[in-house]
Amino acid sequence: MQPQHPLRANRRILAAALVGTAVEFYDFYIYATAAALVFGPLFFPAESVAAQTLFALMSFGIAFIARPVGAVAFGHFGDRIGRKSTLVASLMLMGASTLLIAFLPTYAMAGWIAPALLCVLRFGQGFGLGGEWGGAALLAVENAPKGWEARFGSAPQLGAPVGFLAANGLFLLLGLGLSEQDFQEWGWRVPFLASAVLVGLGLWIRLRIGETRAFREATAREAPPAVPLARLLSHHLGAVVAGSAGVIACFAIFYLATAYALAQGTSTLGYSRETFLAVQLAANFFLAIGIVLAAIHADRASPRQALLIGAIATVVLGLVFGPGLNAGSLWLVFLTLAAALLVMGYVYGPLGAWLPTLFPVPVRYSGISVAFNGGGIIGGAVTPVLAQMLAVEGLGAQAGLLLSVAGLVTLLGVSLAKVWPAAA
Q: To 5 degrees, how large is the angle CA 280–CA 285–CA 290?
């Protein structure tokens, strides 16, 4: 009897990593889309359209402050009690925060209470997502057969384009089917309500899986550390810093090519919401292609090599991103976003396999979660806000240079990272 193909033999594990992450990223991206399209005028006082968009993107950035806090909290329990139960808890918190946004009053209804509640729930989203990615990556990688680590580790990464496709696709359908008034009054709430169904699906899949093989073996040899974060920072601080630098490029590319680009496209550049969403949805497929190609490359060579190639490509991308986005041609906009997301696949796809090599199993959940979400503060929160500030000053064409800087930081982090043996 021939052994099963690794992907088929582990399909439940891979489904749990992919579907759960897709649900969480769907929740995250519907906020990004709503922040770019409607949250400015609905939740913030009317000074100017540009100022409202800036405030909305700043509220979007709150989650990136919350993510490292969630990474510490969920990392602690992920290293202490296991990956599975921690993943279930993170999904529930993320889902509850997202669902409650659907019921928020607007600024016209409740004044400053409305944006305050929005920011609280945005913090809850970020806190939950802080524990999501690291656990999903370990669920896949720690169950991967030898030589398949990067391909298994790409399962949670593929949740990003799947979640983005679902989020923006639903907004596109609502935009096509509703009048502008209906969309502003209640249509934007529908994606947040729909998240309850998706969270239920994610929970059903995750509750049917077991603990990872690597965690079981590690806890059989020795008891988990009492405070994983303390051991992490005292023994592996250099790896945390290098890992954080290594993830900055992927966050910077994604949120400039999605939230920032959407805000610019539907305001400064004058495209309709439905047209620009359709362009982004088409470009999103290149992210999935890039993730798959990078994962195959990483297993044949190494995750480090794939990331180095992606970092260099990000530096080059930054030189053409701003001019391409502001070129005045929708085809050039599409090609720019497609190229950006393809490059992102190379700095995002191998992360699930690369970051775990930096930390031993007893502190691995904490290590990769803190590194991943720490880098997200700069790449995902600071970069879009700086880009919008440049756009407000009439310097939108120079916003792409932020990507070049992010690529250089990632190149430095990956180059300097020390790789610890997985069994250390």
A: 120
Q: How many domains does the chain contain in total?
A: 1
Please report where in the chains the tokens 């085809």 appear, as a residue. 331
Number of H helices, E strands in the chain: 22, 0
In a domain, 2, yes or no: no
Which one-letter amino acid corresponds to residue 49?
V
Question: Rounded CA gap, 197 and 194, in Å?
Answer: 6
| Tokens 């405070």 belong to residue | 227
Q: pLDDT tens across 158-216, in order? A: 988 898 888 888 988 998 888 888 988 899 999 999 988 888 888 888 888 888 888 98
* Tokens (6 digits) for 322: 């701003």
The reply to whether 1 falls in a domain is: no
Whole-model pTM?
0.85
Q: Length of the chain, please?
A: 424
- Domain extent at residue 307: 8-416
**Residue 287 maps to which CATH number?**
1.20.1250.20
Q: Are 258 and 264 in contact (CB under 8 A)?
A: no
367 residue type, one letter: G
- Report the 3 state secondary structure along 70-137: HHHHHHHHHHHCCHHHHHHHHHHHHHHHHHHHCCCCCHHHHCCHHHHHHHHHHHHHHHHHHCHHHHHH
Alpha-carbon Rg for the chain, nearest whole angstrom, is: 20
Q: What is the mean pLDDT of residues 119-144?
A: 89
| pLDDT value at 1 more than 50 | no
Distance CA 157, CA 166 (A): 15
The stretch 105-120 carries a mean pLDDT of: 87
Kindly report the backbone phi and psi dihedral angles of residue 4, in degrees, each rounded to the nearest multiple of 5, phi listed first: -70, 150
What are the phi and psi torsion angles at 331 (to 5°)? Answer: -65, -40
| Pair 308, 366: CB distance under 8 Å | no
> What is the percent of the chain where pLDDT is above 70?
94
Report if residue 422 sits inside a domain. no
Model pLDDT for residues 204-260, shown as the tens digit of each residue? 888 888 888 889 888 888 899 999 999 999 999 999 999 999 999 999 998 899 878
Q: 423 lies in a domain?
A: no
pLDDT in the model for residue 46: 67
- E-state strands within 143-260: none
